Amino acid sequence: MFDFDLRHLNYFVAAADHGSLRKAAAALQVHESAISRRIRDLEDRLGASLFLRRTDGVSLTLAGQRLLGRARQALAHVRAGADEVATIGRAEYGHIKVGLFSTLASGFLSELFRRYDAEHAGVHVDFFEGEATDHAKAVSQLELDVAFVIGNSEWPDCDAAQLWSERIYVALPKDHDLAERTELAWGQLADQDFIVRDTRPGRQIKDYIFRRVHEIDADAHVEIQRVGRSNILNLVALKRGLTLVSESESTIIVPGVAYRPVRGDRVSFYAVWNPRNDNPAFRTLLSLARSMARPAGVAGEPPP
To answer: Is 282 exposed, middle or buried (0-12, 13-18, 19+ CB in 10 A)?
Structure first.
């Protein structure tokens, strides 16, 4: 096995290309003695002379001619590999798995991925819709790169950062008396029947409704429905009750359903990720998301 580094080959190819150690040294911006020493070292290790040395320069021996083509190939392979690694590091190519709870229809996430796609068109992004607890577990096991969830819980083995907040909206039938108003207060909602899904977010919404209604000394009426996100809105259209949604979800069009904001109420959204995740494409996405973060309470908005 021959023990030499890439500089041996690089200096050898440069000397062959320029026909002169002095010109090769000038092109590589090193001392001529360094070129000469490396080539002598390479010749000693190979046991063959590579150049015929003359006062006006150098020319390749037969052994040097045989080595030159292989040396060029070796250097080209190394440069190609380095370029490939560099593109991965710059997140020009890659793959990200993203867990979603909020909609991509509008709002922060829509803008985030629109900008990310424009800047990193070579990165493939897979989206997975689901519950926050399932996403957090997948993130901790590195099955997802990042999840965007409502609220800041203690997720094992995960880091989290608040990125944005949204107003809370009431979804109600279009012909409901309250649909005539542009904004609603809890005093107007206290005697209404609410429906929520039988999921962890649904139970959080239920607790939130009870807390807000009890704050005004009223009793809340909340019914659990074992349906998905779209069907809970269909039940609203069927006048089975009202429900709460985030601002981005209020862009979802369901026949017979109207959305009205709740005065002063907001919900915060977080990114959750595994600090051991070294995926460059994910790290670039997280960096962009944090640069776009909208702190609560900006521009006169109430905190979540």
So the answer is: buried
**In angstroms, rounded to a whole number, what is the distance separating the alpha carbons of residues 157 and 54?**
67
Q: What are 296's strand-pairing partners?
A: none
Q: What H or E segment, with its residue span, contains residue 194?
A: strand 193-197
Contact 196, 232 (CB under 8 A): yes
Distance from C-alpha of 301 to C-alpha of 304, rounded to nearest angstrom: 9
Q: Look up residue 271 and give its two tokens.
A: 């990114």
Q: Which CATH architecture has domain 6-89?
A: Orthogonal Bundle (1.10)
Tens-digit pLDDT profile for residues 40-85: 998 888 888 999 998 888 999 999 898 998 888 888 888 877 666 6
Mean pLDDT of the chain, nearest integer: 87
32-43 b/e with 16+ CB inside 10 Å = b? eeebbebbeebb
Compute the average pLDDT of residues 166-174: 95
CB within 8 Å of 176: residues ≥ 6 apart: 239, 242, 258
Predicted confidence at residue 87, as pLDDT, reads 57
To the question of domain 94-300 being in CATH 3.40.190.290, the answer is: yes
Model-wide pTM > 0.85: no
How much is the pLDDT for 242?
97
